[in-house]
Amino acid sequence: MDLASPLLQLLPSSPRLPGLRELINSLVTYPPAEQVERVRSAAEFGAEAHEGQKRLSGDPYIAHPLAAAQILADLHMDAQTIVAAILHDVIEDTPISKEELAGKFGAPLA
Predict the structure, then answer these.
(1) Is there a contact between 87 and 64 (Cβ–Cβ < 8 Å)?
(2) What is the mean pLDDT of residues 29-54?
(3) Helix (H, G, I), strand (E, B), or coil: what is residue 79?
(4) Is the dihedral of CA 93, 61, 18, 31 positive or negative?
(5) What is the pLDDT of residues 78-98, one digit of tens each?
(6) How far apart are CA 67 and CA 47, in angstroms?
(7) What SS3 class is residue 60?
(8) How far apart are the first and last CA of the chain?
């Protein structure tokens, strides 16, 4: 049974989220589906927060947090840790406040 297909259908096919498909494919083998959805939601939130920001390479800023999340997924870390990787620069590099991040993803993560 292909567990990734339902979630992959929800993903935007956009360069805005480089590596998200691969990340979701890595996750469907071990955490519950609602945790995978939480990771997808964090990726969308992070991409929106970093919209318009570029890395020195010219890649979208979110490429680095998603790459960090992929490393953690390959190590089979829990979803909360992966979400933290995706959002680790949001407070520092965007107008999003700690309170807003806490309201969306919980105080421990913020």
Answers:
(1) no
(2) 93
(3) helix
(4) negative
(5) 999 999 999 999 999 999 999
(6) 13
(7) strand
(8) 36
Task: Give the up-direction half-sphere exposure of residue 100: CA atoms within 13 A in the CB hemisphere.
Answer: 11
Indicate the helix (H) or strand (E) that contains 104. Answer: helix 98-105
| C-alpha–C-alpha distance, residues 85 and 39, integer Å | 10
**pTM of the predicted model, to two decimals?**
0.82
Q: Which residues are designated catalytic?
A: 92-93
CB 43 within 8 A of CB 79: no
Q: In whole angstroms, how far apart are CA 69 and each of 2, 23, 73, 86?
A: 22, 7, 6, 6
How many degrees, rounded to 5, is the angle at CA 17 between CA 16 and CA 20? 165
Q: Please return the burial class of 47, using the count of CB atoms within 10 Å of its CB with bins 0-12, 13-18 and 19+.
A: buried
pLDDT one-digit tens code per residue, 2-17: 444 454 444 444 556 7
